[in-house]
Amino acid sequence: MTDTAHKGRGFLHLARGFMTEGKQKRTVFAPQPILISSLALPANRVISVEVDDNEDVEWMWTSLPEGTKYISGYTIVKKAD
Q1: What is the pLDDT tens value at each position of the chain, 81 positions in all?
Q2: Within a 10 A sphere around the Cβ of 70, how many other Cβ atoms?
Q3: Can you give the residue ranges of every domain in the chain?
Q4: What distance in Å separates the CA atoms of residue 33 and residue 18, rounded to the nearest whole number?
C-alpha cells in the first residue's frame, strides 16, 4: 500500500469511527515538530494515526529551508515479532 492509501485508511477510521471486529485499535501520536522560526506549520500535517495492535508507524519528516521540521506522512508497518 502507498502512503496515500494508509492516510485514507487512517482517515476512515477516525472520520467514521470504523473498527475492525475483534481487533483492538490504538492511536499513535506523531512526534512534535521542530520549530526554528515563527512560520506557521501546514494545517494538513499528520497529528496521529490509528493502527491495529500488530501494526506500528514509520514517520516521514519534511524539512523546510529555515530548519523547521514536521511530520508530513507515514507508513503503517507490521510489528516485528
Answers
A1: 333 334 444 433 333 344 445 578 999 999 988 887 677 777 777 889 999 999 999 999 999 888 888 999 999 999 887
A2: 19
A3: 3-18+27-78
A4: 28
